[in-house]
Design brief:
The protein is α+β, with helices and mostly antiparallel strands and about 80 residues long. About 40% of the residues lie in helices and about 25% in strands. It is built from two helices and three strands; from the N terminus they run βββαα.
């Protein structure tokens, strides 16, 4: 992990396209502004982990359920 010291209104560059700017420091809380291309997803870590968990749950489909759906589709075609 790279640790950098920055003050209010100072910036960190990541590659050519991403800029992180310290916009405010209030006690132990730091406000950060992020400029990045629209295709780059930016989430707080806890939100990212929640999205990953939900995606994993959605991808765990019971195989027997798929068989039932297939059978229903076959019956509906008749």
């Amino acid at each position: 992990m790279l640790i950098l010291t920055r003050k209010k209104d100072q910036t960190i560059k990541i590659g050519d396209d991403i800029e992180i700017t310290i916009t405010a420091v209030e006690g132990e809380q730091v406000k950060v502004g992020i400029s990045a291309p629209k295709h780059v997803e930016i989430h707080r870590k806890e939100v990212y982990e929640m999205i990953q968990k939900e995606n994993n749950q959605a991808s765990n489909v019971d195989v027997s359920m798929l068989s039932q759906i297939s059978e229903l589709m076959k019956k509906n075609k008749k």
